[in-house]
Amino acid sequence: MTDDTQTDSSTNSTATQSASTVSRRGTLATLAGLGALAIGGGTGTASARYAQAPERVNLGEETIEVDGETVFRLTGPQSFVRDDDAEIRDGGTVRAGSLNEVVDGVVGGAIGGGGFFRKDTENTEANVVTSHFGTVGGGAGNQAGTDSDDPEEGQLAAVGGGLRNTANGAVSVVSGGTGNDALGPRSVVAGGANNDATEAFTSVGGGVGNRASNSYATVTGGTGNVARGSSSTVVGGRVNIARAQHSTVVGGRGNFADGRGSTVGGGVDNDATAAGAFVAGGTDNTADGEFSFAAGRGAETNGHDGSVVFGDSSTDRIRAESDNTAYFQMPVTAQSFDNESSRAHKRDVEQVDPESVLDGVESLDITRWRYERNDDSTHMGPTAEDFHEAFDLGDERTISTVDADGVALAAIKALSNRLDERDEQLGERDDQIAALEEANERKEARIDDLESRLSALEEQL
């Protein structure tokens, strides 16, 4: 481009194969160099302030026509002043493709190519840049910038390619795919189809029909997922919703995280609806108490905070019945269970009377039975109601293993004391019997002596 080609921005200088004084190859090289500046986001002094507004500089336009259609158009670099008196110098506005449009008043915009027209349907899919420094790399029907008349809205938005994608938040990006929208400032849609990132700093990685609709929300992929809470995340899966702040759904289908900081790890139709609640996975589980946990199938924390509920594979449901308690629908097997029992960890320690404990054990009705829910095993023991009445321990629903052990040991101690007392009594009886036997032997000796004397007297007579 030479000095005598500089004109007002409304003047076109047409370079054709027959009329241009610059060769096609040389012109394209020149345009490619200036276009690279535009696609790179411009040069120099954005937001710099000057005491006097700079002159507007326009290096004119250069176009290339093929068969009467403009296929490449470059508007030279310009300087302009925003309302806040900050000078912006753009690196040139470039548009490739006769169907594509960089709208009037936009500076620093770039369209690399693409766009199409279907004659059979009269359907035009042009790429459009409507905001300052917006970029569309290619594809068709893509838009960088807003529909507003103010080109500063949505500036620096970019669409890499694909079909019918829109990036109209400031510094927003759609990399590709089809029907994707990056509507919030600095929002990103990496690809996929019909995905929306609608608020500031939101992102959708891909998939189909996903939506990140609150600040810093993220959907990585999957189908029909929604990250609606601030800083919420849906990693993948299908029709999952993370609605509360900092909530997360890792994957699965039909899962719902609606408590602050709540999490669903995966599975199907699971709900974590209280602060800090966690459903690890499985099917049809609900963690609705604060900091509660549910896993398996049909497990419900039932609104109890800090409760832990494990369901098994059956269709029977298991529900928590108190706060800070663990519930297992299945038998629990382990090599040992360690109850904390250090003296250092105990308070209000009182001695018990083993005899009264033994009396309580003797009053218990010990039966054989089976649980109503999904348990074919037969068990033996007292009811929680009788145990509570006898020892004032636990409640009328459960028997703590540490309490059962303590009662058993106290009863054993009482039995041991009784055995010691009986052994002592038996020892005393043994001594008495020995003394009686010794006295009896003496009596028998006297009888023998008397009988001998009697025999001697009878002989004398």
Task: Describe the protein.
The structure is a single chain. Among the domains are: 1-209, no CATH class; 355-459. The protein is 20% helix and 22% strand. It is built from four helices and 39 strands. The chain has an 18-stranded mixed β-sheet, covered by helices on one side. Strands 8-12-14-16-18-20-22-24-26-28-30-32 form a twelve-stranded parallel β-sheet, with no helix packed on it. Strands 2-6-5 form a three-stranded antiparallel β-sheet, with no helix packed on it. Mean pLDDT is 84; it is low at 1-59.
- Portion in helices: 10-25%
What is the general shape? rod-shaped
End-to-end C-alpha gap: 177 Å
Briefly note the structural class of the backbone.
Answer: alpha/beta
What's the main sheet like? 18 strands, mixed
Estimated share of beta-strand residues: 15-25%
Radius of gyration, Cα only, in angstroms? 45 Å
Q: Unreliable runs, pLDDT <50, ≥5 residues?
A: 1-59
Give the overall average pLDDT: 84
Secondary structure tally, helices = 4
Q: How many strands appear in the DSSP assignment? A: 39
Oligomer classification: single chain
Can you tag this structure with a few keywords?
461 residues, alpha/beta, 18-stranded mixed beta sheet, twelve-stranded parallel beta sheet, 22% strand
Give the gist of this structure.
The chain is of the alpha/beta class and 461 residues long.
Question: Topology, pairings included?
Answer:
Elements: E1 12-15, H1 24-39, E2 48-49, E3 61-66, E4 69-75, E5 79-81, E6 86-89, E7 93-96, E8 101-102, E9 110-111, E10 116-118, E11 123-125, E12 128-129, E13 135-136, E14 143-144, E15 158-159, E16 166-167, E17 173-174, E18 181-182, E19 188-189, E20 196-197, E21 203-204, E22 211-212, E23 218-219, E24 226-227, E25 233-234, E26 241-242, E27 248-249, E28 256-257, E29 263-264, E30 271-272, E31 278-279, E32 286-287, E33 293-295, E34 299-300, E35 308-310, E36 318-319, E37 326-328, H2 354-363, E38 367-369, E39 379-381, H3 384-391, H4 401-460
Parallel strand pairs: 1-3, 7-9, 8-12, 9-13, 12-14, 13-15, 14-16, 15-17, 16-18, 17-19, 18-20, 19-21, 20-22, 21-23, 22-24, 23-25, 24-26, 25-27, 26-28, 27-29, 28-30, 29-31, 30-32, 31-33, 33-35, 34-36, 35-37
Antiparallel strand pairs: 2-6, 3-4, 4-7, 5-6, 10-11, 38-39
Helix pairs in contact: 2-4
